[in-house]
Design goal:
By secondary structure, the protein is an alpha/beta fold. The chain has 23 helices and six strands.
Length: 489
């Protein structure tokens, strides 16, 4: 696959400055990936990469595969764990640019769509932090590009590419199913697209997506459908109607997409639906189908339960194309500048912390700050107490300790989720120290008989991020769920 496969000939001839800008942004993201501290979730997914399976309790396995590939090339540090993120987002940017120009060759909104997308704080965070949303976003953009090439060329063989890329998106996160929902709505609603129902290659593409996703189904079948049950339990509207979660969802999108770009994407998607209704423009209908139904689903769910701010990220590739095509260029420039300033502020705060903000106002303090220092203090306490290991009940805390404690120190994670891994179990009868966040309150420990011996504080420049209780524990005999976590190679 070559660059010209993503871009129309006119764009390919004039693309050098745009490509150089994309390469520069990618280089900056790689630098940020190497320098910014890892979050607990990233450390947890690193543990997945050291115990590769076709599925996990929380998500499908693609993020573990990406981390395994990155760490094989660049080691078990932040750069290796995050390596494929900036590279994948560069590929996704090319895909969005190619999709925009393939769908609307007269307007040629591709480069502007990619620019709007890259100006969003959400996209930049996804390019640096390695979570399941990162490969999901990349494969969603690639699948969108494949559908755009299908629409442009009329060649049914593109359904096989759509199926393969859609299957990879499903291997990343279950919300990728919304891509299939949008496609089905488009195929049903658009008169010109209905002809594909008579083409066997549409069904072959769907079968290929199912085959790619089949290992996740097999893993769930062998583990009591654990992951499907956990994630399926998040669907629905909970108990009753609540405006609080709806306000959180809208407020979160204003922050992570930026206010101007959120408005532009909303206007663009609604305009695409209007253009389809008036002109039966298949390309506009496709953009609307991949944006508005999923947006309505998220809004509906937010009337009764919390929708995490990152979940709607999949709406923005198609919405950015619509925004680039159907909104004023001057507002697009303003959106790019506002989004860029917001992302620069967050990155500077995460890396340099020029503002002494409390945890409630600074998510970078809460998630990124002080892990190396906490591990150093925990090791000093372990040596002082003569303990054989360090343990934690919270999976993210345990994984951070496994990454940062000195070599040779055993780290034990405690909770039911570890029963689904193939990691070795801890040896019974050993004495160790357990860290327990005070945010968990004073409830009973998973290890009965734990004795408090002190406290540790995780902080950055004197600002407290979290406080932990130190407890003396002994590994119990019996069925206590625990795992001995891997250490950096």
């Amino acid at each position: 696959m070559e660059l010209r496969d993503f871009l129309d000939p006119g764009l390919a001839r004039a693309v050098n400055p745009w490509l150089l800008a994309l390469l520069a942004v990618t280089a900056l993201r790689l630098g940020a990936a190497a320098l910014l501290p890892l979050t607990p979730d990233e450390a947890y997914y690193w543990v997945w990469a050291r115990d590769l399976q076709p599925g996990y309790l929380d998500h499908p396995p693609m993020v573990a595969l990406w981390i395994a590939a990155g760490t094989a090339l660049a080691g078990d540090g932040a750069f290796g764990i995050r390596l494929l993120g900036p590279i994948g987002l560069a590929l996704a940017s090319l895909a969005v640019a190619g999709a925009g120009d393939a769908l609307m060759p007269r307007l040629r909104p591709g480069r502007w769509a990619a620019l709007l997308l890259n100006a969003m704080p959400l996209t930049n965070a996804g390019a640096v932090l390695m979570t399941p949303d990162t490969p999901l976003f990349v494969f969603w953009c690639l699948a969108l590009w494949a559908v755009a090439r299908l629409q442009e060329s009329g060649r049914g063989w593109w359904w096989l590419a759509v199926g393969a890329l859609g299957g990879c998106a499903l291997l990343s996160k279950y919300t990728a199913a919304l891509f299939g929902v949008g496609l089905v709505i488009w195929l049903l609603a658009d008169p010109a697209a209905r002809r594909w129902w008579r083409d066997w290659r549409l069904y072959a593409g769907g079968l290929l997506a199912g085959l790619v996703f089949a290992p996740v189904v097999a893993w769930n079948a062998a583990h009591g459908w654990a992951s499907f049950a956990k994630q399926g339990g998040r669907a629905g509207t909970g108990e009753g109607f609540h405006l609080r979660f709806l306000g959180e969802l809208v407020g979160g999108q204003l922050a992570i997409a930026s206010p101007v770009l959120l408005v532009l994407c909303t206007v663009g998607a609604v305009t695409a639906a209007t253009v389809w209704a008036r002109r039966r423009d298949s390309a506009a209908g496709l953009l609307a189908a991949l944006t508005l139904p999923a947006a309505l689903i998220f809004l509906w769910q937010a009337t009764g339960s919390r929708v995490q701010g990152n979940w709607p990220a999949i709406l923005y590739p198609a919405a950015s194309i619509a925004a680039a095509a159907f909104t004023a260029r001057r507002w697009q420039w303003i959106g790019v500048m506002v989004g860029g300033v917001m992302m620069a502020a967050v990155t500077i705060q995460a890396g340099l912390a020029p503002l002494a903000l409390p945890r409630s106002m600074d998510p970078t303090l809460a998630r990124m700050a002080g892990w190396e220092e906490l591990a150093r203090d925990a090791e000093a306490a372990r040596v002082r107490e003569g303990a054989a290991f360090i343990a934690a009940e919270e999976y993210g805390l345990a994984a951070e300790l496994a990454l940062h404690l000195p070599p040779g120190v055993p780290v034990i994670a405690i909770s039911d989720r570890w029963d689904l891994f193939t990691l070795p179990e801890s040896e019974a009868g050993q004495q160790g120290l357990m860290l327990r966040s005070l945010r968990r309150g004073e409830g009973p420990s998973l290890w009965p008989g734990a004795e408090p011996v002190g406290e540790l504080v995780r902080s950055r420049d004197g600002m407290e991020a979290e406080r932990y209780r130190l407890l003396r524990v002994r590994t119990p005999a019996g069925d206590q769920p625990s795992a001995l976590l891997p250490r950096p190679r």
